Amino acid sequence: MRQSSDSAGFLKRNRHILYLLPWILGFLLFRAGPMLYSFFCSFTDFHLFRGISAYGLMNYRRIAFDPEARRACGLTLKYALICVPLKTAAALFAAVLLSGRLRGIRVFRTLYYIPAILGTSVAAAVLWKAMFRDRGAVNQLLVFLHLPAVSWLSDSHAALWVIILLRVWEFGAPMLLFLAALQQIPQDISDAAALDGAGKAGQFFRITLPLISPVLYYNIMLAFCNAFQEFSAPFVITAGGPRGATGFLSVLLYRSAFTANDMGYACALAWTLFILSAGFSAGFFFFRKRFVFAADEGGIL
Amino acid sequence: MKPLRRSARSMLLRYLILSAGACILVYPLLWLVIATFRSNQDFSSAGLFPQHPTAEGWKKAFDSYGGQINLLRAIRNTYCIAVPKMLLTLLSATLTAYGFARFQFRGKRILLVLLTATVFLPQTVLYVPQFLLFHRLGWIDSPQYLPLLVPAALASDTVLIVVLIQFFHGIPKTYDEAAKLDGCNSFQTLIYILIPMLRPVLISAGILVLLRSVNDYMGPLLYVKTPVRYPVSVFVKLSMDADSGFAWNRVLAVCCLAMLPQIVLYFAAQRFSAPESGSLQP
């Protein structure tokens, strides 16, 4: 084979490089590079204005022993473990309700999706704060129903639930995915199951759920990824309070990095969050074969 | 006769459940709109409807804070970030997905593994080191919003790339071959043949990318420091910090107006978009 060294010839034979170049550059500059740099920083006491004066494991030791950091890890996990199943179940339930052929069903689909448009926006968080005030809409409703009012924003258990309710309310995005998957299930499969005498519930758990398991898997994984990153809701609604009850890792990370300028510690927190998140993803990949029906070929991942 | 009545009853039941769900889901937004017309004196009084409706909140919503930033300007700023970000993201992600989907080369497997690995890499993890990078480059508070736009131009939206690769795989390669016979090079094939076929997907992906960057809070919070350049997410937080407690009607009117463009946009785009692209989430 003759080797031509001129760059024009090289590019002609390797056209793909031109298309991939932006992504490769972005990956190196904005992902791999920063990740490695932050790994290095996490072993220093890097301060934004004072620079580095010491190296060692002090940041990780602080995370392991500092009650605030330990609580942040626990809270982030607890929040994700409550929020993700609730949100996914709500989305699945709504999708099953909305998948049938009914007059006006499109209107309902739209209405159910509206909260999801607001996503992580600050406006939605402010609305939630206004509704869950001591004399806000939610408590007025509770009083109207002769139930005891709850001081949502100053009670440490209730505050976490305020944020969970906000995110569960916005279940529209996973719902759309479930809907698309449900509509792809061929009618004859459920007809055959009905002929074999499967009840509605049996049909759902034995036929429908396995068939949409790739989407279920994807939704759960994405929801966990989003839950670990939750920032705007605790930051806006409760500012991490009351008494640290919603001080998620992301909030602690933000405060350490951009209020205290303690970049080394913040990098260590970021890596802790990364390991937590990556651990979950790895676990999911590991169990994928067991829970996902017929490892899909044309699927999302 | 009997089965008909039974199915009618089950249909009625479904409508009832659906309507109840819709009421619960829409109630917060309905409450928001009505609460903006309350006066601050009876803001916390019981009942859904205000006793003395007033438009004071709406009028004050347009007032500026410290003469530097007002709501309309903040909304404009938001779209000055979100629209270029959407276009850059679509462009870079399409090019990357095309490169992965239509070319065979050495090292492709490794690059694909890296690509899918970054799908689940939380952005929160990257904020600190990226901030340090932009700080060193002097991009913090840049009037062109460089820290928000440059990563988008370099295909930072990995989920979109992965989804677009799947859509490229869905188009038979015979189209590419026919285009090649007609004298198209690979770029012309992309522009004239493949992108028009992907148009519905690209439009709905674009809308979701747009919504996501409109809703983004941490990015502007870190990289935009001058009040005149605040986008609406930062402005809403500012307005809440300044006025909640004694001018809730104004805060909620600001919220309402901040939500309005994205909801309108979403519905306007419905006509053009493809339902299959739901795997991208705002």
Note down, in words, how this protein is organized:
The complex is a heterodimer of chains A (301) and B (282). Chain A has a domain at 60-121 and 170-291: MetI-like (MetI-like fold, Orthogonal Bundle). Residues 295-301 of chain A have low confidence and may be disordered. In chain A, 71% of the residues lie in helices and 0% in strands. Chain A contains 15 helices and no strands. Chain A has 301 residues and is mostly helical. Chain B has 282 residues and is an all-alpha fold. Chain B has a single domain (60-279), classed as Orthogonal Bundle (MetI-like fold). Helices cover 70% and strands 0% of the residues of chain B. In chain B, helix 3 crosses helix 10. The longest helix of chain B has 34 residues, at 2-35. Chain B is globular and about 75 Å long. The model of chain B has no long low-confidence stretch (mean pLDDT 87).
Keywords:
heterodimer, A: 301 residues, mainly alpha, MetI-like fold, 0% strand, globular, disordered C terminus, B: 282 residues
CATH class annotation of the domain at 60-121 and 170-291 in chain A: Mainly Alpha
From the spread of the alpha carbons, the general shape of chain A counts as globular
- Unreliable segments of chain B (pLDDT under 50, ≥5 consecutive)? none
- Provide the gyration radius of chain A in Å: 24 Å
Q: Determine the strand fraction of chain B and express it as a percent band.
A: under 5%
Helices and strands of chain B, in N-to-C order? HHHHHHHHHHHHH
Number of strands of chain A: 0
CATH architecture of the domain at 60-121 and 170-291 in chain A: Orthogonal Bundle
Reported for the largest beta sheet of chain A, the result is: none
Total tally of structural domains of chain B: 1
Query: Might you state the CATH topology name of chain B?
Result: MetI-like fold
H/E element sequence of chain A: HHHHHHHHHHHHHHH
Query: How many helical stretches of chain A?
Result: 15
How much strand of chain A? under 5%
The level of helicity of chain A is: over 70%
Helix segment count of chain B? 13
